[in-house]
TrEMBL record:
This is GNAT family N-acetyltransferase. It comes from Heyndrickxia vini. PROSITE patterns: GNAT. Residues 1-169 form the N-acetyltransferase domain. InterPro entries: Acyl_CoA_acyltransferase, GNAT_dom. It comes from the Bacteria.
Length: 252
């Protein structure tokens, strides 16, 4: 009989439990930045829950109230799922984690739960598992982004901004817009900078400090990481140094 345990990470047990991603490199800058970011977000209502099978990591979910979310979506009185990842599949763990979030949304008298998906990358959760848990798609955005919601009543649907092209226009220089919500952001940033350095390109980094700034500047709904060069969108996820170099060369 497998032993299944849900562990909610908080300020008191973070050092002992650690977060799920990049846990094999607890001294890395990305992992350290993520933990510091979590400490700042716990008092804003963020929940980070791991599921363990026989004391082994099976998966996790991270979600937070929309007013503190790192996803670029408009709406009121929703919880937003940032991340969902399960590495022990076929046992319903993803659905268990999603249902945990839905139940908490009901207890908090929210209007529902939101998630942003994208079929072109593993940096966002898969759409299909949310459809299975009675989410519906209500909006789309450039670069393959989809907005799904599980609503409890007839409240207004959440929605994406529509000014994505205009957001690119101020950025002629190579610009990285980021938060520390994902521990892989540091690696993604390093790879872009290494590629840019080989071409003699200087990178500007904007570390997002507020929800307002995020909603105004982010070039995609993903929110936590975006790269722009010569008013052109480059990526919202990690590229290899080679891929970054190739993409930048195309715009020189």
């Amino acid at each position: 009989m497998k032993t299944i345990e849900f562990i909610q990470i908080n300020k008191e047990n973070l050092d002992d439990q650690g977060c799920y991603c990049l846990r094999s490199k607890p001294n890395s800058t990305g992992y350290t930045n993520k933990n510091e970011w979590l400490i700042g977000q716990f008092h804003e209502g963020l929940k980070y829950i791991k599921i363990m099978e026989d004391n082994k990591h099976a998966g996790f979910i991270e979600y937070t109230p929309i007013e503190h979310s790192s996803r670029v979506v408009y709406g009121e009185n929703y919880l937003v799922i940032h991340c969902l990842w399960v590495n022990i599949t076929g046992k319903g763990y993803a659905s268990k984690l999603i249902q945990t979030c839905i139940q908490e949304a009901r207890e908090q008298r929210k209007d529902g739960v939101i998630v942003v998906t994208n079929p072109d990358t593993s940096w966002t959760p898969s759409k299909e598992i949310f459809i299975k848990n009675n989410f519906i798609e209500v909006d789309t955005a450039p670069y393959g982004f989809e907005l799904l919601v599980h609503k409890f009543g007839h409240s207004p649907n959440p929605y994406f901004p529509t000014d994505w092209e205009n957001r690119l226009k101020p950025f002629t220089n190579l610009t990285i817009i980021r938060t520390q919500q994902c521990p892989f952001v540091d690696i993604a940033t390093e790879n872009i900078i290494k590629g840019a350095n080989r071409l003699g390109i200087q990178a500007d980094i904007i570390d997002i400090q507020s929800r307002e700034e995020l909603m105004r500047l982010s070039p995609t709904p993903y929110g936590i990481y975006g790269v722009i060069f010569k008013k052109t969108f480059i990526t919202f996820h990690r590229l290899t140094v080679h891929s970054a170099l190739k993409r930048l060369k195309e715009l020189i």
